[in-house]
Amino acid sequence: MDMNVSLESALGRRKFIGLALAGGAALAVPGCASMPRFSLTEAIRRMLLLSSERAFLRMTEPGGFWDTQVARIGLGNLLGTRGDVLAGILTSTLFKDRLEDAFADIAIEGSERAAPLVADAVRVIGIENAEALVRGGPRAATAFLQGEMGGQLIEAMVPELGRAIEIASDPLVGQAIDAITGANVSGVANRLAGTVNDAIWDEIGNEEAAIRADPAATRDPLIIGVFGAGAL
């Protein structure tokens, strides 16, 4: 895998994710003529689709995923290294930047694989107590969707991340993997997938909270009608 991802390819990835999520939205939302005035279930679906679309697009921007998520926990914690083994590899800013870029790109590959799954889940999810989710906290719908999906994202991302790590051409990636104690490529992929999974849900939750705080900004009459001030 080429670790120096061009801006063109990054834009192409975002376009793909945007189309996948937009397609999910098109299937999820019925025509206005047949839609109930205040469909709580449909409003939740629309909000989750919009939240996930915004989250995935931001996470796959060049440098976005690394800057906002992976850097917070540090490479040592992410890879499960012993002592200063990895620190010995990162003896210069150049090495550190190259390694960070490599793993950020691998993480993005996994998040791309997860995007369509979230859109599909929102489209078909059964929402029994919609009013409770509407009245819930700023991330209530995201937490509900995450619970419904279980470990689907991790299961989907691990094969992709495993392959990405195995074929990574940057020697620094190989050095980092060799430095891990008692972990093979599969182990690294599982750890990284767990990190990406947590980041995805955190970002979707952030977007849900932003929509709830300012429903009018979505320009979606149904979201505004259900989540706007004094709606319920």
Commentary on this structure:
The chain is an all-alpha fold and 232 residues long. The protein has one domain. The protein is 74% helix and 0% strand. The protein contains 12 helices and no strands. The protein has helices spanning 7-28, 40-59, 64-73, 75-79, 85-89, 93-124, 130-135, 140-149, 152-167, 171-179, 185-213, 221-227. Helix 3 packs across helix 6 (93-124). The N and C termini lie far apart (51 Å).
List keywords for this structure.
232 residues; mainly alpha
Mean pLDDT: 76
Provide a count of the helices.
12
**In total, how many beta strands?**
0
Strand content bin: under 5%
Structurally, how many domains make up the residues?
Answer: 1
Structural class of the helix and strand makeup?
A: mainly alpha
Q: What sequence of helices (H) and strands (E) makes up the elements?
A: HHHHHHHHHHHH
Radius of gyration: 20 Å
Determine the N-to-C terminus distance.
51 Å
Show unreliable segments.
Answer: 1-11, 22-37
Quick one: overall form? elongated
Question: What's the structural blueprint in terms of helices and strands?
Answer:
Elements: H1 7-28, H2 40-59, H3 64-73, H4 75-79, H5 85-89, H6 93-124, H7 130-135, H8 140-149, H9 152-167, H10 171-179, H11 185-213, H12 221-227
Helix pairs in contact: 1-2, 1-6, 2-6, 2-11, 2-12, 3-6, 6-9, 6-11, 8-11, 9-11
